[in-house]
Design brief:
5 helices; rod-shaped; alpha+beta; 2 domains
Length: 244
């Protein structure tokens, strides 16, 4: 019973709890010896037994208390690491969606909602519906065509998948999506991750460049057409008059 109490308090309150419980236990044993008025060999035997038990109990409380301190330290370190990773995850300049092997979202960062304009909560199942009416090559994407779902089904990464999304505020976004399945040591798919990058500005610059080239080509064609007309008229005049 005493050992059980020492183990309990050592694990609950670490070294301090173990030492206090051990000290109280030894004091209780000494009180019993004193109250029972042990004498002679009986007294010597009782004191030796108490001393041995005291050493054992102190050693036990030390080991359990030390283990408790190490466990607490590991828990704190793990929590700190998790907080650091979560802070980095939330500050990424790209949207990140992580799902389980069934396509159910287990984690997203804030950038996803900024890019898509809607909240994809934990527990939302990908591949069931197309809430943003996303398009690819001018065609509305089927929910099962989601890069993340395809990565889960095939086990192969989907890279640079471009799509057009209309946000609830009617703003059009051009997105580039990468997705990859996550395998365990046995090669089984246990999750998937999708990274969403906003390429709207890049697409707008490309459209402006194409528009500029079209306008420039038209403007260059106009004087060239006039010059060509003048040259044809001049050629006819020379043919008719014979003058060069």
């Amino acid at each position: 019973m005493s050992a059980a109490l020492i183990i309990y308090f050592s694990f609950r309150d670490s070294l301090k709890g173990g030492y206090i419980t051990t000290s109280i236990t030894i004091a209780y044993y000494l009180y019993i010896i004193w109250s029972q008025q042990y004498e002679g060999e009986r007294l010597v035997s009782a004191l030796e037994t108490t001393a041995v038990l005291g050493l054992v109990f102190f050693f036990l409380s030390y080991v359990i208390g030390w283990l408790k301190l190490k466990i607490d330290s590991l828990i704190v370190r793990e929590a700190d690491e998790k907080h650091r990773q979560q802070a980095i995850f939330q500050q990424l300049p790209v949207g990140v969606i992580i799902s389980d092997e069934k396509g159910i979202i287990v984690q997203t960062n804030e950038k996803v909602e900024t890019l898509l304009g809607i909240n994809l909560p934990v527990g939302y199942k990908m591949g069931v519906e197309n809430p943003l009416n996303a398009k690819q090559d001018g065609q509305v994407m089927k929910p099962t065509d989601s890069p993340l779902i395809r990565a889960l089904h095939t086990g192969k990464p989907v890279l640079g998948e471009e799509m057009i999304v209309t946000k609830p505020n009617k703003k059009i976004m051009y997105l580039s999506v990468n997705a990859s399945a996550i395998h365990n040591k046995k090669g089984h798919i246990i999750a998937a991750a999708s990274i969403i990058n906003d390429i709207t500005q890049q697409k707008q610059l490309e459209e402006l460049k194409d528009e500029f080239i079209t306008i420039a080509s038209h403007e260059l064609k106009t004087p060239l057409t006039s010059i060509k007309g003048y040259m044809q008229v001049l050629g006819r005049v020379i043919d008719e008059t014979g003058n060069y």
